[in-house]
């Protein structure tokens, strides 16, 4: 038998519905993390723009409000496609169900993902501190 190695990818399974379906986070995968950050920035920009449009449309005509709602639907459809690209096909169906998610649902989703990533970062800092202590304690002094 030949030599073999396996890199630790540290994939985290996140349960997203009562049917036991899950999505995965790969915090050590720089491509995944870069794509996730780009997606979250896209969401931020879109939600800021939509929020401004919605507040302006509150006192407008039905046609103008309808136009803003159509823009919201378009933005959310794009976010659905992009979310499935980053996390994998079917992510939005698993997370949001069969109905099209709205901007507030995306805000909740990204907020929860951000919280999970903060927890991961905190654990990595603690692990790095333990490794540094170990190195300091057991390193040879010349």
Q: Overview of this structure, please?
A:
This protein is mostly helical and 142 residues long. It has a domain at 12-105. It has 4 helices and 2 strands. Strands 1-2 form a two-stranded antiparallel ribbon. Strand 1 (12-15) and strand 2 form a beta hairpin. Helix 1 (30-57) runs antiparallel to helix 2. The longest helix has 36 residues, at 103-138. It is elongated and about 75 Å long.
List keywords for this structure.
142 residues, mainly alpha, two-stranded antiparallel ribbon, 4 helices, 2 strands
Structure at a glance:
The protein has 4 helices and 2 strands. It is mostly helical. The protein has a domain at 12-105.
In percent, how much strand structure appears in the residues?
A: 5-15%
Give the low-pLDDT segments: none
Mean pLDDT: 88
The gross shape turns out to be elongated
Largest sheet: 2 strands, antiparallel
Strand order of the largest sheet: 1-2
Which series of helices and strands comes N to C? EEHHHH
Span between termini: 42 Å
- Cα-atom Rg, whole angstroms? 21 Å
The percent range for helix content is 55-70%
Query: Total number of β-strand segments?
Result: 2
Number of H/I helices: 4
Helix-strand layout with pairing:
Layout: E1 12-15, E2 22-25, H1 30-57, H2 62-87, H3 91-96, H4 103-138
Antiparallel strand pairs: 1-2
């Amino acid at each position: 038998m030949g030599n073999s190695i396996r890199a630790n990818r540290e994939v985290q399974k996140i349960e997203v519905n009562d049917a036991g379906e899950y999505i995965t986070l790969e915090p050590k995968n720089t491509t995944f993390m870069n794509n996730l950050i780009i997606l979250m920035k896209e969401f931020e920009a879109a939600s800021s723009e939509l929020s401004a449009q919605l507040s302006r449309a509150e006192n407008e005509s039905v046609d103008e409000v309808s136009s803003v709602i159509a823009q919201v639907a378009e933005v959310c459809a794009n976010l659905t496609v992009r979310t499935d690209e980053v996390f994998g096909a079917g992510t939005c169906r698993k997370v949001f169900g069969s109905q099209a998610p709205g901007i507030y649902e995306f805000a909740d989703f990204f907020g929860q993902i951000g919280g999970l990533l903060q927890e991961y970062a905190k654990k990595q800092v603690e692990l790095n501190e333990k490794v540094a202590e170990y190195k300091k304690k057991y390193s040879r002094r010349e």
